[in-house]
Amino acid sequence: MKREKRVKTVLKWLNDYITFFLLVAFVTTCCMLLFVTVLAKSLGVVLTGEVLETAAKLTFGNVVLLSLLFTVIDKVRRKLTVEMPAKRITDAAERIMQGDFSVRIEPQTRFATDENFNKIIKCFNDMATELGSVETLRTDFIANVSHEMKTPLSVMQNYGKLLQAPAISDEKRLEYAKGVTDGARRMADMMTNILKLNRLENQQIFPKTDDIDLGEQLCQCLLMYEDVWESAGIEIEADIAEGVSVKGDGELLALVWSNLLSNAFKFTEKGGKVGVSLASEGDAAVVRIWDTGCGMTPEVGKHIFEKFYQGDTSHAAHGNGLGLALVKRVIDIMGGEINVESAVGEGTAFTVRIW
């Protein structure tokens, strides 16, 4: 294998040398013929065979040396500007093929660098970043799903066994069937939220931002829970300023308001209050979503933005501990901030600032 490689290298060198030799020989011969002809006519010199033979030998020697020099210079140039960058890219590609998505290529900075290689390197690094994100997404998804789905699967299995009992009433059968469907719904919601969260956590390239009317968006998100607050007799207080807009991803921001409102209604008892306010403070848009629900202790408040954390286990059947983690990640992506104030028995207030 090495011998074949050496033979190919020698043949390539020989091919390049012959190419330069023919080129230099043609150019030099034309120039010399023109020069000698003009010189002889101008000076009235008669060129003898001996003189021409000597000149031809000197010209041939110069052609040989110049061809060799040009070949070496071209080889060094190609080595520095083409072969070395190409080898760095192919080596990095081989590492990615082996599963190493952390590989990155430094841009070319030396003299006479071909900028096309830097464009290729930038595209390669972006590709490696996205592939690494996808791989992390896959591994995190498998780990999280395998851990978090044990409980709903066990519940569904138990209800399934109960449904197999021959002598159960229709009322119990409906109850057990509802338990199975509720468990399936929880698993579906969990998988959806895990995928969203891991995508947001690991993705480095985000979609372009648009102008978003926060007042209109908050009203739309609030109306989605109209049936919830009406059935629970929850009073709504809204103080939404007009004309407040920000630049961002509308779908991601809607996810923030939806999760905060969902938590507010979930933890507010019947007859309680949920409020939404929007104001402009300097360069920031400030959204405040509050409730008069059960509230939480300072210790719980420290962990609410962690994945799968549920401080109030009495409501665990209605969530999976991913909503606030999604909210925090979206706000971080947008360069904003989110704060929480809460007191046990008095309620909770989330304040979001977006610049």
Summarize the entry for a quick read.
The chain is of the alpha+beta class. It has helices at 2-43, 49-97, 115-148, 150-163, 170-202, 214-223, 226-232, 250-266, 298-301, 323-333, and strands spanning 210-213, 235-240, 245-248, 273-281, 284-291, 337-343, 347-354.
The succession of helices and strands, N to C, reads: HHHHHEHHEEHEEHHEE
Poorly predicted sequence stretches spanning 5 or more consecutive residues: 313-319
Main sheet: strand order = 2-4-5-7-6
Give the C-level CATH assignment of the domain at 210-354: Alpha Beta
Structure commentary:
The structure is a single chain. This protein has 355 residues and is α+β, with helices and mostly antiparallel strands. Among the domains are: 2-100, no CATH class; 210-354, 2-Layer Sandwich (Heat Shock Protein 90), CATH 3.30.565. Helix content is 62%, strand content 13%. The chain is built from ten helices and seven strands. The chain has helices at residues 2-43, 49-97, 115-148, 150-163, 170-202, 214-223, 226-232, 250-266, 298-301, 323-333; strands spanning 210-213, 235-240, 245-248, 273-281, 284-291, 337-343, 347-354. Strands 2-4-5-7-6 form a five-stranded mixed β-sheet, with helices on one face. A two-stranded antiparallel sheet has the order 1-3. A hairpin with a 2-residue loop joins β4 and β5 (284-291). α2 (49-97) packs parallel to α3. It is elongated and about 125 Å long. The model is unreliable at 313-319 (pLDDT under 50).
